[in-house]
Amino acid sequence: MSYDPFVDAVQRGILVGTSPIRSGADGWWITNEGVVLLAAHLDERQRRVTLAHMLAHVDLDHEAGLPVHSGEARSQEIAASRLATRRTIPLPELISALTNVGDDAELLAKHLDVTVSSLAKRMRNLSAWEWNEVRALDRRIRWPHLERRPLRCAISADVAAEPPRATPLLLAS
């Protein structure tokens, strides 16, 4: 595993904690506090993926407080998702996993220490060059038939009595 979002957060001086976030968000970036809260119900891989996603929002300097269903909020979510999946699943690690682990999406995700949803997003967003590299392996990933639940995150400037409503990251991204 080449990218560790927890080490990344520590190196940046960003505090990371867990909390039962009442808005339903999986992750919450509190900009003025330099804090990322991760939902207490997330498992280890979900926390890794969610923190990577929240740090992508930080790097992309995304705006807090956007209306949940606005086009700008959706664009921010797509950009953060793309950056986070590239970091957590770099092409050499993806190729190595496909070569050595096989074609089962759940086993690949476990090996890569990501969620199946994150792996799917990475595969959908391969560049043309990356796609050719993966295609050359002649592997077809077997995807599970699981209920899909989008990552939900929130960005706000301050800690308020109630976190902002979570912005769902739609699976089309």
Strand and helix order: HEEEHHHHHHEE
Strand order of the largest sheet: 1-3-2-4-5
Radius of gyration: 16 Å
pLDDT averaged residue by residue? 87
Query: What oligomeric state is this?
Result: single chain
Report strand %.
5-15%
Unreliable spans are 164-173
Count of discrete domains: 1
Structural class, from helix and strand content? alpha/beta
Number of strands: 5
Domain IrrE N-terminal-like: 27-123
InterPro entries: IrrE_HExxH (IPR010359)
Organism: Nocardia bovistercoris
Pfam families: Peptidase_M78 (PF06114)
Write a structural description.
By secondary structure, the chain is α/β, with parallel strands linked by helices. It has one domain. 45% of the residues lie in helices and 12% in strands. The chain contains seven helices and five strands.
Short descriptors:
173 residues; five-stranded mixed sheet; 12% strand
Which secondary structure elements does this structure contain, and how are they paired or packed?
Layout (H helix, E strand, L loop, with lengths): L4 H8 L2 E5 L7 E4 L4 E5 L4 H16 L11 H18 L2 H10 L4 H8 L3 H9 L3 H8 L16 E5 L10 E2 L5
Parallel strand pairs: 1-3, 2-4
Antiparallel strand pairs: 2-3, 4-5
Helix pairs in contact: 1-2, 2-3, 3-6, 5-6
Give me a quick take on this structure:
This is ImmA/IrrE family metallo-endopeptidase. With 173 residues, the protein is of the alpha/beta class.
